[in-house]
Write a structure and sequence with these properties.
Chain B is an all-alpha fold and about 300 residues long. Helix content of chain B is about 75%, strand content about 5%. Chain C has a two-stranded antiparallel sheet. Classes of the chains: A alpha/beta (about 450), B mainly alpha (about 300), C mainly alpha (about 300). At the A-C interface, helix 1, strand 2, helix 3, helix 4 and helix 7 of A face helix 1, helix 2, strand 1, helix 6 and helix 11 of C.
């Protein structure tokens, strides 16, 4: 009745080949090779799912407006050449959503099927970690714009992968320093972080920094609710029974908003000062609903904490004009990444021909430049990982102007809150943060 | 002592949330034998509908109490319309088929509705927190309880009472009970099972949307809230027994209290609690807590 | 022939096909169980065990040989399936599905809590070697993985086909129809289902091991229920009537998903959902039914 499985397998293989061949031919021919003077970039971020609204879409929006402005040659110096070195930039936007297998498949598609010149993107540290070896294998220049894990450049030396945005250890070390400087009478602190890598790493770094900088202050309640849990009643009850004066959280967007609504209804912020390392993402959304006195971080001198430089003002203006809302830090991170890539590209393209990935990599290694989020020095990871200064501020809603503001801003130089070259971030914090140069 | 009280209150609040989410699902399964994955979509639509309603009434400046009713009504209307469209338009073509096929139809619908939400409301998140903040809070010693949470527990209890009463004491409720027990015999007695199906599905959808609506003031209404809810609802229904309202209530209470205890006492196991309880219950009572053992049909 | 097609096709298609065929093994396991009327929403458990077995062996013992790694992945998941099967074989229908889901989510929770394994970030796998041969170019690496996957799939197809033709395999449909009569025939339904769970677990584990090698990275999401859901999705697309359908269905699904991402980046869920709906409505027996019909027609022709 049924054929032997071998015939089945041959039939399937024939069908597979027959199915694949026309697709392959069509796809190979369909996208015409880009016109000689264009640079094709793959831009990957979350366009769907819960991480889209806080991180993925600001990143995508920033990419769109920056690329448009660059192509028109209207960016301020030293970014005022058209596009990348005179060649217009063409972007293909890809959704980062789905399992790691999908992310890797889509990355390969960008590089091998769509033949992009470089890939910029990735919000999730899991995506970054998975894509890195593939980028090295395919020898394609890749810039990560948002993911925070320090592991990428600490596990192995990389040749084709870069990250201008500083990693997340900086955020929590600076948070500890700010808290100790500003909160008098601190004897105990608690933490509520999402139970996944980002939350676990954030808490570990914060706890480590506090242990080094203020050994007498103890950690009381350490909570790790599920990611996207949304309902924090039990956690808030637990915190209400604690005697801590401060609460650390790396929550972002949806979870953060839910937590703030729920805790405010029960008055938790009146007992504990909240330190939100990624809090800037909700500043403009919550507005007067964010309790005054909350300590806010923006993962760098970025977003609402950006310095008032010309280039920061330029970026804020073009973004707000287009999207009717001020840019948050993920948008700044994307802008920094694109501008940094542009500089590296132009440095390598001196001969006028399109530079190879290796040449761009050589051009990017170890550079310094100043973008909307401040000065970037590619000081870690053998010149592949950037460090910047960072800042924290305290929220205060300005009732006259009807805008949220950050006051009491403290800025921390890059070398104060980042490990020195060659030292792993986790080990650096544990060993007492030796070599930190704070003023 | 305070901790024990906190565990009790937190457990009740979480149980109220679980119950409201699960009751629609268990009803649909009990009557129609459909495990409706799109229930998460009803919840999400209810939440988004409520958020929109809250937005409208805030701009109109209406008093708070009416705002809450408006929110609930809007959400349930959304649920009813959506349920009607789905059942008449799509599901009834799938009735004859294998149970698993129907589950997959609902899964496909769920995927599509996720993107429909993006098309209607965009990818941003919405807040509907005004009712919750307006309700104020109550202090019990060191512990501060949100009045909105207390209200949720009362609403859930009322819902449970209403559902049980209607199933046992109204004519239509008894018809539903008959169909739950044995569809074929109910049809043989002249009950119009098709109409019962449609009405049940609509009620289930409205209940799912209601769950979303009452939770909306507490959470940020954003993409993906439907996904989390589905697994929780499934677990509660599996624990309580498919099709049993009392089961959903008891299941919700057990999971709610266990989870609250875990968060306060042993936070490390919080991730596992619901699955652990489900596995344990299924091991001891393979069909859930409240389902009668069915006679074997040879 | 598929091997040759792989050598000619562009790289990105080869890697897509490799992952698709690796996932198809998990689907094949689901087909084995579905013939007996059981749907598991927890195949991700074995898939993840196989993947992590490969990753951890590489990390702790430094083994990079792909053949050994895949074998180890399969053995690990088979053991888990054997143990878990004692419990699962007592359940049917929705409860079987829910219990299997619960077990895979418990593994997920455990992995997320384990910071030394990178929690939700997971960790990378070193480049595999093939019985001493270490590919030196990216293209050769992809092709080697593809050929390995094809070989394993071929062996699996042979094995499963043989099982379906055996007495134990042929009892699947009777079990679905009426278990009690099967018991009266003298066969132990619990033992048969236990065996099916083990076969499915083994296949899913091998699939996970191959997928891990192809992706180069493992993370706890491989144990999440949406991963199981993806396998079930393809199982419905493929139907239970033909072994080949599992592989073709998986390939089509991956291609479809990739095309949806490419053409409609924000709306790929609608695309996938619609395709599933259309398949269910018009092809309730899945793609396999098309294949079976074709074969019947060709074997019915006078030769």
């Amino acid at each position: 009745m049924s054929h032997p499985a071998k015939c089945t397998k041959v039939a399937l293989a024939a069908l597979a080949a027959a199915a694949l061949a026309p697709i392959a031919v069509a796809q190979a021919q369909a996208p015409a090779a880009p016109a000689p003077a264009t640079v094709k970039l793959g831009i990957v971020s979350f366009l769907t799912g819960p991480a889209a609204s806080p991180f993925g879409i600001p990143g995508r929006n920033a990419a769109e407006i920056v690329i448009e402005t660059l192509n028109a040659g209207k960016a301020p110096a030293p970014f005022n050449t058209v596009g990348f070195g005179g060649a217009k930039v063409e972007a293909k936007y890809v959704d980062e959503a789905g399992a790691v297998a999908n992310v890797v498949t889509e990355y390969r598609n960008l590089v091998q099927r769509d033949q992009v010149d470089a890939v910029v993107g990735y919000v999730s540290s899991g995506s970054c970690l998975a894509v890195t070896p593939v980028a090295e294998e395919l020898k394609k220049l890749t810039v990560f714009y948002d993911c925070g894990t320090p592991r990428i450049f600490e596990e192995k030396p990389r040749s084709y992968v870069f990250r201008f945005s500083p990693h997340a250890t900086m955020d929590n070390v600076a948070a500890a320093r700010y808290l100790i400087a500003k909160k008098k009478g601190l004897t105990s602190f608690s933490g509520i972080n999402q139970n996944y890598a980002w939350g676990q790493d954030s808490w570990r770094d914060f706890l480590g920094a506090m242990t080094v900088l203020a050994p007498k202050v103890t950690a009381d309640k350490i909570l790790f609710p599920k990611l996207f849990a949304g309902e924090y009643g039990a956690e808030i009850s637990t915190l209400l029974t604690s005697k801590s004066q401060a609460l650390h959280s790396s929550f972002f967007d949806g979870d953060l908003e839910s937590f703030i609504f729920q805790e405010q209804a029960r008055g938790l912020d009146k007992r504990m000062t909240m330190i939100l390392t990624a809090g800037e993402t909700v500043l403009y959304r919550l507005r007067d609903k964010l309790p005054d006195g909350t300590i806010i971080g923006a993962r760098g001198s970025s977003g609402a904490l950006a310095r008032d430089t010309d280039i920061a003002k330029w970026f804020k203006t073009i973004y707000t004009d287009r999207y009717n809302t001020p840019p948050t830090y993920p948008a700044y991170q994307m802008a920094q990444s694109l501008l940094g890539l542009k500089l590296g590209y132009e440095k390598a393209a001196k001969a006028g021909a399109k530079p190879t990935s290796e040449e761009i990599a050589a051009g990017l290694k170890g550079i310094s430049f100043t973008g909307p989020a401040g000065e970037v020095k590619m000081a870690l990871g053998d010149g592949h990982q950037g460090i910047t200064e960072t800042a924290y501020g305290t929220s205060k809603f300005n009732k006259q102007k009807n805008t949220p503001e950050l006051v009491d801003i403290m800025r921390f130089p890059a070398e104060c809150v980042n490990p020195p070259a060659g030292v792993e971030a986790e080990a650096w914090v544990k060993d007492g943060m030796k070599g930190a140069k704070c003023n | 002592m305070l901790t024990a009280f906190a565990i009790l209150t937190d457990g009740l609040v979480y149980a109220a949330y679980l119950f409201m989410v699960a009751i629609g699902l268990t009803l649909i399964f009990g009557v129609m034998r459909i495990l409706n994955v799109a229930h998460g979509s009803f919840y999400a639509f209810g939440a988004y509908g409520a958020a929109t309603a809250v937005g409208i009434y805030t701009t109109l400046g209406l008093p708070d109490a009416m705002g809450f009713l408006l929110m609930v009504a809007a959400a349930m209307a959304v649920g009813v319309v959506l349920g009607l469209i789905l059942e008449r338009g799509l599901l009834r073509f799938a009735y004859g088929k294998d149970e698993v096929i129907v589950v997959l139809v609902t899964y496909a619908v769920f995927l599509m509705l996720e993107d429909v939400i993006v098309l209607i409301w965009g990818p941003g998140s919405y807040g509907a927190y005004q009712p919750m903040i307006a309700a104020g809070n109550t202090e019990v010693g060191d512990l501060v309880l949100s009045n909105y949470d207390i209200g949720l527990v009362l609403i859930a209890a009322a819902l449970a009472a209403l559902a049980t009463w209607s199933l046992h004491f109204t004519r239509y409720g008894r018809i539903l009970t008959a169909v739950i027990f044995d569809r074929e015999i109910a049809a043989a007695f002249g009950i119009n099972v098709t109409v019962v199906y449609t009405v049940t599905f609509i009620i289930g959808a409205a209940l799912g949307a209601l769950g979303g609506a009452v939770m909306a003031p507490k959470i940020a209404v954003t993409l993906g809230i439907g996904v989390e809810v589905i697994v929780l609802a499934f677990a509660v229904v599996a624990i309580g027994g498919m099709g049993s309202i009392e089961g959903a209530l008891v299941g919700a209470l057990i999971v709610g209290l266990c989870r609250a205890a875990a968060v306060h006492l042993v936070p490390q196991i919080e991730l596992f609690v619901i699955y652990g309880v489900m596995a344990l219950v299924l091991i001891l009572r393979p069909h859930g807590l409240f389902v009668r053992a069915q006679p074997r049909k040879i | 022939m598929a091997a040759v097609a792989g050598a000619l096709a562009p790289d990105w298609i080869v890697s897509l096909a490799t992952i698709a065929f690796a996932n198809a093994l998990a689907v094949l396991g689901l087909v084995v169980m579905w013939r007996a009327g059981l749907i598991s929403f927890g195949q991700a458990l074995y898939y993840c065990v196989g993947a992590y077995a490969v990753a951890l062996t590489g990390r702790w013992a430094g083994i990079t040989d792909a053949f050994i790694l895949v074998l180890l992945g399969g053995v690990a998941s088979w053991l888990i399936a054997a143990i878990v099967g004692f419990l699962l074989a007592r359940y049917r229908e929705i409860f079987f599905a829910m219990l299997s889901l619960a077990l895979s989510m418990i593994l997920y929770g455990g992995l997320v809590k384990t910071e030394s394994l990178g929690s939700t970030d997971g960790f990378s796998i070193s480049t595999p070697t093939f019985a001493g041969y270490a590919p030196h170019s990216a293209a050769m690496l992809q092709l080697s993985l593809y050929w390995l996957t094809l070989l394993v799939c071929f062996l699996a197809a042979l094995g499963v086909g043989a099982y379906f033709r055996s007495v134990a395999g042929s009892l699947a449909a009777p079990i679905r129809d009426n278990e009690i009569r099967v018991e009266f025939l003298g066969a132990s339904v619990t033992r048969l289902i236990h065996v099916k769970v083990m076969i499915a677990g083994l296949l899913a584990g091998i699939g996970g091991a191959l997928a891990a090698l192809a992706i180069g990275h493992v993370d706890p999401n491989m144990a999440y229920w949406t991963t199981s859901g993806g396998f079930v999705f393809v199982t419905v697309l493929a139907g239970s009537s033909s072994v080949a359908a599992a592989f073709i269905g998986s390939l089509l699904f991956e291609s479809l998903r990739s095309a949806a991402f490419d053409l409609m980046p924000g709306l790929w869920q609608i695309t996938l959902g619609s395709v599933l709906l259309v398949t269910i409505m018009f092809l309730p027996e899945g793609l396999g039914s098309i294949l079976v019909r074709l074969r019947r027609r060709s074997s019915a022709k006078p030769s």
